[in-house]
Structure formats: structure tokens, C-alpha cells
Amino acid sequence: MSVQTISLKNIKMDPALRSEILNNIVSGDPSKCVQCGICTSGCPLGYIIKPHRIVKMVNLGLVEQLISSREIWLCTTCFTCSERCPQEVDPANILFTLRNTASKLGYVPRELVEICMNIVKDGRIIKISAGREKEREKLGLPKAPPVDAEKIRKMLEEVGFLKIIGGTVK
Amino acid sequence: MRYAYYMGCVVPSRLNQYDLAVRNVLKELGVELVDLEDAGCCGTVITRSVDAKTNLVMSTRILALAENKNLNLLVTCPGCYESLKEAQETFHNNTSFKEEVNTILKKLDGLTYSGEVEVKHLIHVLYEDLGLKNIRGKIKRSLKGLRVAAHYGCHILRPSNKLKSDNPENPKILDELIEVTEAKSIYWMLKLWCCGSPILAIDRDLSLSLTCAKLKSAKDSEADCIVVICPSCQLQFDFMQNEASRISGERYDIPVILYPQLLGLSIGLKPEEVGLHLNKTGIDKFLETLKTIWGEEHGL
Ligand code: SF4
Ligand code: SF4
């Protein structure tokens, strides 16, 4: 398993980055966390991700370590932590905010960039192959609804996604 | 009953049997589907991970396309469902987003979204709009004796404050839809856990460790099959089952059936009419189980 744990060497506090992250959290409030650990105990990957620890680190401003870690990308987005948190902290959503901040700073995992580029190129996460279209025909299904990929690309440009993902499509 | 039908990305690119089963079952039940053209990807947790707003804009566009047809939206993927509901909620609660997204949509499609579309997953259409009583009347072949492990999938349930779909800790919709066929929805310990699919591309082993844990839980509870309502969960449990068996050291051979396939069979559709031959794991075994249940008259 290729999990990189959060590095706690050369601890750095970054108040500016912390404020940026706090400003971008759209639901939940990390300052309400009482470190009860209910989030982590319900997390299917709680032995690796530890949402309560992530919330604590955000509160302390140890955000640089977080956004450069691989751990934040291992959350399955199952929302169990957020569902069960008695303080309405919404750790799953905080994780999204951390990922968004990491993305802006260029830390998107390569595997995710690839999937994003599919959307940019084809308007879908996975392209519909000729084989699948043939299979549809054989099953008596109508053709898959067409997608104007150029339009989707324009939308992604408009909203700033292309810039973040570093994407000019070749 | 008429809905705009949004298929999403995974179904037409990997799982035509889901589409086939949905169309054939809903036809039998008198529900009309209008394909949503030019919709593209909803953004899902993929774009949300990079930029949450992108996801909201992509999803709102799909809502606007449905509104343009004057129809409510039927989706079959909980990933799309969660995304679209999240967009709907943001649209209603955030005026600046509302203006921003409408500016983009106007430019792109000449559309303005007013916020009127209701988003439903297939199970909501079956459970709420058609109703169990209606469906019970259509059952031709009882599945009595079949032990089913119901897997909801995360994004049909959580976050419940936004989705308001079912009780997130003790859901019942899928269980009742299974039991309307007289099959038994069994207790299994890891029922509400994630299947592992969202992190498959990022960390394959870790992702499959969750899949294994769930397969083991279903096996321990002597499930005849796992029933799912999410295309990604289906791919994870069915297509990845072999690889999951390999890493766990324990061999699994558990049929994984999409709910509309199960319902289709019990309202009298043939296995090929619900695309059962396109599923990967344990299908022969599953058909044998059905033959035992249906006896001489199985017609398979
Ligand atoms: S459950 Fe909520 S309050 Fe408890 S540790 Fe987790 S985030 Fe903090
Ligand atoms: S959303 Fe992520 S952090 Fe929260 S319980 Fe699920 S996997 Fe763990």
C-alpha cells in the first residue's frame, strides 16, 4: 500500500493559508470540534485518514502538511463522519475544501488529473467506446445521448476549472 | 408518469445492462422516459475534489436542461443524484451562485434555470411515485427464499441533511423494494459501508480492501447475492470481485445484481431482457438459485 502519512517534520504554521481554507469551507465549522473522535471511529478508513486529526490540524493552522499529503485524497467521500459528528463540523466537506486548496496549489494526484482530462476532452468521465455503442444496438437500446464536448469544455473554461487543472487540450 | 432520464457517464460507457433493465422495467410499470440530450457529465466528486464550484455549475446545467423539457429528473446513479441535489440546494440558498450559474448557462445554452426541477433516483420513483402496492400487483414470480444483501451506496443516503432521501443509519427504501418481490433483505454487518470505488484510481489496494471487507460480510451472512443501485458500486463488486478475491486470499463468487434486474425478473422479464448475461460474477449460480426457487415452472 502506497500511503504517505502526513509529515510532521519541520512543522510550519501557515495562518494565511489557514484563513483561506476557513473562508472556503461552505458547510460546517471546524472550531466547534471537541475531538470526540466519533468521525474517525465511523470512518471506513479511520486507521489511515483520521478525520478528527485533520480537523484539529486545520484548527491549529498545520495546513501545509495536509494539503501536500496523499491522505486527503484517500477519503472515499462516504460522508459517514459528517453524518455522525455531534457538533456539525462536517469533516468530509472540510476534506473537499482541503483538496480544492491543494488543487489550486498544484497538488492534484496524477490519476485524478487523467480523469478530469477525460471530461475536458469528451464531456464524460469515460468515453463511450464503439464496442459499447454496438452492444447498445444489439440490446435494442437507443444510441447513447450525444454530448457536445466543446460546449462542456467552454463551461469548464468559464468556471476556471481548466486553469486549475492546467489543461490546454491537445 | 413522465421523467427526463439522465443516464450519466458510467452507465453508457460500462454498464448497458443497467440502462436496459431500467427501460424495460419502467415500460412494464407504465413510466415514460425522455432521454436528456447533450447533458454530459454532472461533475460528481471528481470535479468537486478539484473545484467544488465546477461541480455545482455542471450539475445545475443538467437541472436546467430538464427544466427546459418541463420534466422532473430521473437518475440511476447515486453519484449524479448527490451532485444534482447539492447543486439544487446551493442554487436555492446562494444568490450569488444563482446569478453566476445563470450567466454561464445563458451564454452556453441560452438557458436560465429557475430552480423548479425535482431530482429523483430510480428507487424514489419506484417507492414514492409508483408505490409498493402498485409494484406488488405486477409481481409474477415470487423470489421467496432468496437471501439478498442490500447495498445502498453512500451518495443515495449521505449527507442526509441535503439529500433527505432515507434514514442514513437505518434506511428502508431499498430493503422494502427488495422484499416486495418476497425475497429476504438480510442483516449484514457492513451493509452501510462504502464499496471502495471512489478511491480505486488513487489507491487500488486500499479501495479493494473495502470491497473485500464488504464481500466477506455478505458471505458471512450467507447472502445469495448483493443488490445494488449504483453503477460504480456494481462495477466495484462485480467486475472487481476477482481481483478483490485475489488480494484477500479468500475466494468470492457472489452474484451482484442491479435492483431493476431483480425486479425485472420477478415481474416476468427474461434474464436477457434485463441484461443479466452482461454481469460478470456468479451469474450461472444465480440462475441455478432462481431455478430452485421457481421449480419446474422456472422458464429459464
Ligand atoms: S465527530 Fe465532530 S466533534 Fe467529534 S472529533 Fe470528529 S469533527 Fe470533532
Ligand atoms: S467521508 Fe472520508 S473521512 Fe469521512 S468517514 Fe468517509 S472516508 Fe472517512
Strand content of chain A: under 5%
Q: Looking at the structure, what is the overall shape of chain A? A: elongated
Number of helices of chain A: 10
- What's the shape of chain B? globular
What is the makeup of the main sheet of chain B? 4 strands, parallel
CATH level 1 class label of the largest domain in chain B: Alpha Beta
Overall SS class of chain A: mainly alpha
* Tally of strands of chain A: 0
Structurally, how many domains make up the residues of chain A?
2
How many independent structural domains of chain B? Answer: 2
Pattern of helices and strands of chain A: HHHHHHHHHH
Helical region count of chain B? 16
- Seen as an oligomer or otherwise, the chain set is heterodimer
The percentage of residues in β strands of chain B lies in: 5-15%
Short description:
Chain A has 170 residues and is mostly helical.
List the helices and strands and how they pair.
The complex is a heterodimer of chains A (170) and B (300).
Chain A: H1 15-24, H2 38-42, H3 51-60, H4 63-67, H5 80-84, H6 91-104, H7 110-122, H8 130-139, H9 149-158, H10 161-165
Helix pairs in contact in A: 3-6, 7-9
Chain B: E1 2-6, H1 10-14, H2 16-28, E2 32-35, H3 44-50, H4 52-68, E3 73-75, H5 78-93, H6 95-109, E4 119-121, H7 122-130, H8 132-136, E5 147-151, H9 154-157, H10 160-163, H11 173-179, E6 184-185, H12 204-220, E7 225-228, H13 231-239, H14 241-248, E8 256-258, H15 259-266, H16 283-294
Bound molecules: iron/sulfur cluster (SF4) (2 copies).
